[in-house]
Amino acid sequence: MRAGTLVLPPLGARPYRFLTEPARIKKGRLHVAVALHAQGHPAEEVARLTGSNVSQVRRYIAQYEAGRGLAPAEFARDLSADETCQLLGACAR
User: What domain of life (predicted)?
Assistant: First the structure.
């Protein structure tokens, strides 16, 4: 890699892609939950803000953390919700 080369996360992992009204729109809610977790919000607050239950948020967070040790290239296929959380974790490394 050349000096000064900017390395960006994949488009789907960039924060501006996350929803602004997760409690009203179900699709993409896990993206918001993971983003809030990455910002340091506790699971209970994430659940309240997204309209999800705490156990689901904890599952998203666990999968996100599990994905932090993986390479994004491992996810070149259709993804389940758990795999999407893992991909977001892989992109956050």
Answer: Bacteria
Condensed to tens digits (0 to 9), the pLDDT of residues 24-72 reads: 777 788 888 998 999 999 999 999 998 999 999 999 999 999 999 999 9
CA–CA separation, 29 vs 69, rounded Å?
Answer: 23
- Do residues 49 and 22 touch, judged by C-beta distance below 8 A? yes
Q: Taking the domains of the chain in order of start, what are their residue ranges?
A: 11-91
CA distance 9 to 87: 11
Both structure tokens of 83: 């795999």
Selected residue with higher pLDDT from 3 and 67:
67
Whole-number pLDDT of residue 1: 42
Q: Which residue type sits at 23?
A: A
**52: closest CA among 67, 37, 40?**
37
Helix axes 81-91, 29-38, angle to 10 degrees: 40
